[in-house]
Design goal:
By secondary structure, the chain is an alpha/beta fold. 30% of the residues lie in helices and 15% in strands.
Length: 218
Amino acid sequence: MLEVPVYNPSGKKIDTMKVDEAVFGGQVNAALLKQAIVAYHANRHQSTAATKSRSMVEGSTRKLFRQKGTGNARRGAIRTNIVRGGGMAFAKMPPRRVRKLPKNMRKAALKSAILAKILGQDLLVVKGLGFDGPKTKQMAGVLKSLKVDRSCLLTVAQRDKNVYLSSRNIPDLAVMTAEELNAFDVATRQKMIVTAEAMDALLSKGAPRDDKSGEDRP
């Protein structure tokens, strides 16, 4: 059993939560986690860089002047890459970077990412996190109390407008619900703060089920 510290918004440790590592796969699958990160990163790439080849630019294909006797260098059509306005010799084309991961692989990669955060003592559980309105100063105070000064992923049980508005102006702080988590966002942040309700949702979501006919969302 792993022990995860539970803090209040003031940064005081109030409890310890016991987590069975089997809920998150038992061990970190580094190979799968890397494969998932590479796939997520590749799929976020827009792949829009492109240049025009000789066949894409406008212009006649007629030879500009005869081959010999003019004193000029040999030259073909106006579309050639050696004249201004011509096409590129080796034109860039947008590559296809889409990589697909099966649902079970995405789920397993997410579990490995969360388990890695727990084993590295980079996951904190906060109880009683909430705001009456958009309070960026209060959110910054919570991070300071928890001694979080690096990139951080804040996980909540359900969408909270006040928490989101209080966090959006803080650099390197992202807010996601437990249903929206993926291996890329978890692994690429240095710290992870999870509310008590979100942690309960993650534990219940990752717990083994007797009925294998039902599938959780990735």
